[in-house]
Amino acid sequence: MRNKFDEQLEKLHVELIQMGAACEDAISAAAEALLKGDTALADAAEEAEKDIDQREREVENLCLKLLLQQQPVARDLREISAALKMISDLERIGDQAADIAELTRYIHLTDGLSRLHIGEMARAVIAMVTDSVDSFVKGDLALARAVRAADDQVDALFEQVKRELIDLIAADAAAGEVGLDILMVAKYLERIGDHATNVAEWVEYSLTGVHPSDD
Questions:
Q1: Which of 92, 143, 185, 212 is surrounded by the most beta carbons within 10 Å?
Q2: Cβ proximity of 60 and 94 under 8 Å
Q3: Which distant-in-sequence residues (6+ apart) come within 8 Å of 212 by Cβ?
Q4: d(CA 51, CA 215)
């Protein structure tokens, strides 16, 4: 019985890695669509979001099977319940990447706007998503806590983008409309960082039995 449970638990890990990879692809494609003005990349981000939705349903079904058929013990129960929470955040990450992709269809970056720290924000949140899922699969508490710390960097980048946009709009009022769209992109990236942090917090709960919000 335990061997069967371990096999299904390993399958859960693989499914979560694949879901996390799809999130990374969606964010990367959406950010590149903005920076390169490439609608094909925007399409790719939106397709990745559909894949993420499908993977969420598959992981949810697997978790329910583990709960109903395998009678997990306390540690296993925490791991499965954490996975159920995590996929909700991963699904929201996919939604927000698709929202970015949709906005990119209406944004044309000038030289000044292309120097904003959007690309750096995107790379930072992709790393957070990767590390949050890896921390779950590897049972790595230190990595989960590093993800939580990395969110401060993303928040700082968001504030930097806001300041840069304010300066650009002050210098050229005509940049106001596209500036607001780019601010929305930055906000979506900041929210993706928040969701990756949520994933890391559920990893910490699965490993310790204590959610960081309870500290």
A1: 185
A2: no
A3: 148, 201, 204, 205
A4: 36
Rounded CA-CA distance 202/86 in Å is 7
What domains, with CATH codes, occur in the chain? 2-214 (1.20.58.220)
Give pLDDT, residue 47: 95
pTM greater than the 0.85 cutoff: yes
3-state secondary structure of 207: helix
| Predicted pLDDT at 141 | 96
CB burial string 75-95: b at 16+ within 10 A, e below: ebebbbbbbebbbebbbbbbb
AA letter at 215 = D
Q: Are 42 and 101 in contact (CB under 8 A)?
A: yes
Q: Are 201 and 211 in contact (CB under 8 A)?
A: yes
pLDDT in tens, 149-189: 999 999 999 999 898 888 888 887 777 778 888 899 999 99
User: What are the pLDDT digits (tens) for 95-136?
Assistant: 999 999 999 988 877 665 656 788 899 999 999 999 999 999
Which whole-number Å values give the CA distances from 208 to 13, 17, 80, 173, in the listed order? Answer: 18, 21, 14, 52
Cβ contacts of 52 within 8 Å, gap of 6 or more: 19, 22, 23, 26, 90, 91, 93, 94
Of 45, 51, 50, the residue nearest 30 (C-alpha): 45
